[in-house]
Each structure stands twice: as structure tokens, then as C-alpha cells.
């Protein structure tokens, strides 16, 4: 039986661990070869440790264990030249490009007027500019191939609501929704689809311990905005990867410009 992504190639950012690794493994299990990048370092403004070279090596090992090929590179999404080179190297080795998953992102917490300039710039540069760079490096290849494609941008529930304590993160995630909607319109005639995915809390290494004091201080007012409607604490990365695999496949061929919520019902309230 042919897998639904057989013969396709996916480019995934932030692939060393967490959601990015889950996307890589799931798309590979569906038949896709993978081009994977991550910066393998800790961000300057986050309270959690970043990925390591061994994390990206493990993603590559797990993809190869599915029987698929992978080209993995240590690249920061803020480095357009490096990102573009990784894409072109991967396409040269694997033969084509069909799926783009703009997943890389960081998060930290502060009240909006107390966000440091360093926090603001690092978050916006990674989460928003990194998506623009990803699109700028990949869209010309998809257009030139002439066979359509699927671009999947990982946003957040904070990309559709003014979540407290993460104003810089929410701004970046709202920004990529606007970019994705515009690209959906511009690329429709090329049969290139662009959709955003909006998780709530996901069980990854991207924790936000610096948010805890705010949740305690505002337990009766703002903290309930983070409550789930469904009776689960967090999603697993594989839950989000299920949606990414659907959006990558021809089963979603009539979907573009959509904001797909996989948020445990945070946004239902």
C-alpha cells in the first residue's frame, strides 16, 4: 500500500526535538524524505535549554529508521543565507520539494511593557522573520517545479488571542497568520496551499517557567484564559504532527488560508 506522502520531500525547521521532530518522523512514516534544520543552541532570552547537535542527530536517526532519507543541517532560521543553502542542498540531494513546515520558534514571559528589547527582537526575529525567510527560500522552488505544494506554518493559540504575559510571542504568532493568509491568496494559482496550525500547550522541552509567577498572581483573572475545554493537560507533539500530516497530504487539497486549531479547546472559551 502506497503511503500518502510517497515520493514527496518535506523541509522542516526547528526539527531537532519536540514538535519539529514529531513532524519529521510522522511525515517520513507517511513516505516523505526530509530536509531538517535547527540551530542547536539555547536562545539568549528563554528560561529553558535549547536543542543540541545530538538532538538533531537523533531526529535524523529516527527518520532513517522509517526507511526514508534525511538531509539534516545546523542552521538558524534567522540566517537567510544558511537556511537557503540548506534548502538547496537538500533539494539537490533528494530531488524536489513539496512540503514546508515552518515550525521553529521560541517563547519567554513578561508583561508587555516590561519585555526587554533583547526579548522582543529575538522572539520576533526567530518566530516571524524566520517564517518569512523560510518562505522566501522555498516558495520559488515550489513555483518553478509547477506541481503545487503545501506550506504549513506552526502558529499558536496565542496567534488568535491576546494571551497575557507573552505579548512578544503573541505578536509574532499573529504576524505569521497575516503572512500566511496573504501567501495563500498569492500562491493559490500555483496550487500551493498555505495553512496555519494553532496548538495550545504541548508537552515539549519548550517550557516557560518564567510564566509561573504571573499565573499565580493573576489566578482569578487572566490565568483562566489558559484553561482547556477538553479534559487533558497538554497535547503531545504527535497530536500536532497528525494535523501537519493531514495538511501535507492531498486529503486537504481544497484547504488554504485556514487557521487549524489543535488547542484542547482553549480558544473555544
Structural description of this entry:
By secondary structure, the chain is α/β, with parallel strands linked by helices. Helices cover 40% and strands 14% of the residues. A seven-stranded parallel sheet has the order 3-2-1-4-5-6-7, sandwiched between helices. Strand 5, helix 5 and strand 6 (192-199) form a beta-alpha-beta unit. The longest helix has 29 residues, at 117-145. It is globular. The termini are far apart.
Keywords:
about 270 residues; alpha/beta; globular
Radius of gyration: 18 Å
Q: Number of helix segments?
A: 7
Termini, distance in Å? 42 Å
Shape: globular
Unreliable stretches: none
Query: Spatial order of the strands in the main sheet?
Result: 3-2-1-4-5-6-7
Give the number of DSSP strands.
7
Biggest sheet: strands, sense, closure? 7 strands, parallel
User: What's the multimeric state?
Assistant: single chain
| SS class | alpha/beta
Helix content: 40-55%
The succession of helices and strands, N to C, reads EHEHEHEHEHEHHE
Amino acid at each position: 500500500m502506497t503511503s500518502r506522502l510517497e515520493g514527496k520531500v518535506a523541509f522542516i525547521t526547528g526539527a531537532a526535538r519536540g514538535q519539529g521532530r514529531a513532524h519529521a518522523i510522522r511525515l517520513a512514516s507517511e513516505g516523505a524524505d526530509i530536509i531538517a534544520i535547527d540551530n542547536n543552541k539555547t536562545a539568549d532570552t528563554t528560561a529553558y535549554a535549547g536543542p543540541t547537535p545530538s538532538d538533531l542527530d537523533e531526529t535524523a536517526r529516527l527518520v532513517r529508521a522509517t526507511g526514508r532519507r534525511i538531509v539534516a543541517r545546523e542552521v538558524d532560521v534567522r540566517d537567510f543565507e544558511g537556511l537557503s543553502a540548506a534548502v538547496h542542498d537538500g533539494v539537490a540531494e533528494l530531488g524536489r520539494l513539496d512540503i514546508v513546515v515552518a515550525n521553529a520558534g521560541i517563547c519567554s514571559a513578561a508583561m508587555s511593557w516590561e519585555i526587554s528589547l533583547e526579548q522582543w527582537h529575538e522572539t520576533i526575529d526567530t518566530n516571524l522573520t524566520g517564517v518569512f525567510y523560510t518562505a522566501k527560500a522555498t516558495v520559488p522552488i515550489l513555483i518553478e517545479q509547477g506541481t503545487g505544494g503545501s506550506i504549513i506554518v506552526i502558529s499558536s493559540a496565542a496567534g488568535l488571542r491576546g494571551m497575557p504575559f507573552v505579548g512578544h510571542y503573541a505578536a509574532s504568532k499573529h504576524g505569521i497568520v497575516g503572512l500566511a493568509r496573504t501567501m495563500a491568496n498569492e500562491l493559490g494559482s500555483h496550487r500551493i496551499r498555505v495553512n496555519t496550525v494553532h496548538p495550545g500547550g504541548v508537552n515539549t522541552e519548550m517550557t516557560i517557567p518564567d510564566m509561573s509567577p504571573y499565573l499565580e498572581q493573576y489566578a482569578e483573572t487572566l490565568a483562566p484564559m489558559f484553561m482547556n475545554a477538553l479534559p487533558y493537560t497538554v497535547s503531545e507533539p504527535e497530536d500536532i504532527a497528525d494535523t501537519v500530516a493531514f495538511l501535507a497530504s492531498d486529503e486537504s487539497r481544497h484547504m488554504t488560508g485556514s487557521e487549524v486549531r489543535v488547542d484542547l479547546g482553549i480558544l473555544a472559551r
